[in-house]
Design goal:
mainly alpha, about 70 residues
């Protein structure tokens, strides 16, 4: 389940389980940990894990780019 901020944007910080003040290293570390946990190859047939994995990748794509992070 995705958490949303005010408006329609998902709360990418909550998805990656980091604080809003997290630095790039913390974000990357959390991303890698969660990506391994919810990777489809480790959770065959689990649609919820697959959706979570996609959300984690989207969140990391946004938060790892300083321009998008603003």
């Amino acid at each position: 389940t995705l958490r949303y901020t005010r408006g329609c944007m998902p709360d990418y910080y909550a998805i990656l389980e980091v604080e809003r003040t997290a630095d790039e290293k913390t974000i990357k570390t959390s991303y890698r940990k969660l990506a391994l946990t919810f990777h489809p190859d480790r959770n065959r047939g689990n649609d919820e894990a697959e959706e979570k994995f996609k959300a984690i990748n989207e969140a990391y794509a946004v938060l790892s780019d300083p321009a998008k992070r603003q």
